[in-house]
Amino acid sequence: MNNRTISHIIEPQLVIEGAGVLLRRSIGPRASNEYDPFLLFDHFAFNNPLEGPIRGFPMHPHRGIETVTYMLDGSVNHRDSLGNTDMIGPGDVQWMTSGRGILHEEMPRRSESSGNIYGFQLWVNLPAAQKMNPPRYRGVKSSTIPVIEKEGASIRLVAGELDETRGPVTEIAASPLYMDVKLAPASRFIYPIPSGHTALAYVFDGAGEFAGEAVESVSMVVFQNNGDQIKVRSDAAGRGVRFMLIAGAPFKEPVVPYGPFVMNTVEEIQQAILDLRNGTFVK
Ligand code: CO
What b/e readout covers 200-227, taking b as 16+ CB neighbours within 10 angstroms? Predict the structure, then answer.
């Protein structure tokens, strides 16, 4: 096995989205498509009462992508044009495949006990052949996400495989790996990722050694594409490290992002805007 090295480390930038939601963004949709098949990674954390009233994401469209919401604290109330209403609570995941079109509303709420809201949203691209498929919604409750305890690591497996266990989210075009890894102090975590697949680690608590380099939270580690395993270590001092491990097979197709739409050509973006205007976006 060849260990992957780090390509670069991204420091998340504060951005404002939706009706005025403050987020930490590590990656955003771009034509350069550097993190193919992943388009966006946002971290929302409202832990400061001085931030004022909680604003959310009122009804808005998506086409051509999958949006994945993972909550750690607080919740998000969801409503969509398929008729789903759902609450994404701590530990829950919502995997929404927009396909040709969906309208949804995402409204965060503080936890009643801690007063916090803490979670992530990942956008996964769809291949050209699936961008216009019917939308699909999957709400995954915390209790159905397997937790694997292994040599100082506690892993919540959302999508992908670990040893004999499979995450509950399957049949996704990018065959993604999405897991929440908590390493106790003085532990080691080694995980195989096929060479050529994009691999990212969003380090959101503590600090550790990723591919031999010291990394502190909060940062997004981008691994080199060659090599077939990643290695993480936490030292004996400190409180260990916690990160989201994200990996998937790139589609290597052209990408044209426009707000909540990500298509392959400018014409397809124009069509999405036209469909929205003509009321034919959602069938
Ligand atoms: Co959305």
Answer: bbbbbebbbebbeeebeeebbbbbeeeb
Residue that the structure tokens 């036209």 belong to: 274
Residue extents of the structural domains in the chain: 6-278
Q: How confident is the model at residue 46 (pLDDT cuts 50, 70, 90)?
A: low
The amino acid present at 86, given as its one-letter code, is D
Q: What is the pLDDT of residue 200?
A: 98
- 95 alpha carbon to ligand 1 midpoint, in Å? 11
Confidence class of residue 114 from pLDDT cuts 50, 70 and 90? confident
The type of residue at 169 is V
Ligand 1 centre from 256 Cα, in Å? 17
Q: Which residues pair with 63 in a beta bridge?
A: 261
Task: Give which of 44, 72, 54 is closest to 110, Cα–Cα.
Answer: 54
**pLDDT tier at 260 (50, 70, 90 boundaries)?**
very high
167 CA → ligand 1 middle, Å: 23
* Alpha carbon of 129 to ligand 1 centroid (Å): 22
Which pLDDT belongs to residue 53? 63
Per the listing, tokens 């502190």 go with 216
CATH 3.40.50.300 fits 6-278, yes or no: no
Give 3-state DSSP helix, strand, coil % of the chain, rounded to 5: 10, 55, 40
Q: Which residues lie closer than 8 Å to 19 by C-beta, 6 or more apart? A: 55, 56, 57, 58
Taking the centre of ligand 1 as the mean of its atom positions, its distance from the CA of residue 68, in whole angstroms, is 9
